[in-house]
Amino acid sequence: MEFRSYREFWPFYVLQHSKLATRLWHAVGTSFVFLLLILTGFTGKWWLLLLIPVIAYGLAWFSHFFIEGNKPATFGHPVWSLRGDFHMYFLTISGQMGAEVERVKKLYAEKK
């Protein structure tokens, strides 16, 4: 699937994360990103940075394969997927992502 902008990509990304459990696994993984960055800063143990992609992608991909039942958007759109993950993270922790999923589903239903 081709996208010309992040704005076009975002609805696709949202629909790839329609289940709450998928979004929560992503949020846990992204939280580890921040935790590991902080730990690295305080301890100076730079090797901790190597754990970031392993943990974050591991949890996210687990949720796609075993909960959502789809292929991670990262495989086809790595940069926009990373941006989308942080976008989704902040909407999730602020309690707004569920409404965003419903908005996008309604938008797609109206196009059909």
Automatic annotation (TrEMBL):
Keyword Iron-sulfur among UniProt keywords: no
Regions crossing the membrane: 20-40, 46-67
Domain of life: Bacteria
Record has Transmembrane helix as a keyword: yes
UniProt-listed InterPro entries: Mpo1-like
Annotated keywords: Membrane, Transmembrane, Transmembrane helix
Protein name according to UniProt: DUF962 family protein
Organism: Tumebacillus avium
Taxon lineage: Bacteria, Bacillati, Bacillota, Bacilli, Bacillales
